[in-house]
Amino acid sequence: MNEPQDTTARAARPDPRLLEILVCPVTKTPLFYNEAKQELVSRAARLAFPIRDGVPVMISDEARAVDDEELRTLGKR
After folding, report:
1. Which of 21, 29, 41, 53 has the smallest count of CB within 10 Å of its CB?
2. What is the rounded CA–CA span in Å between residue 69 and residue 75?
């Protein structure tokens, strides 16, 4: 019998090709994928856009502000 596959983790992860073409809607600069927080971070805009059910929510009103300390931490990755 076949083992059931765990599609939950795969469904929640955005398509890597999509991540390559997305840019910040505010600054039009590249985004950093923060896998641990499931967010796309714009260093230029200092915003983190959530990824919900594998879909990036690229609405600035839905984004959270990113502080200097968090940006420094992301820079080390």
Report:
1. 21
2. 10
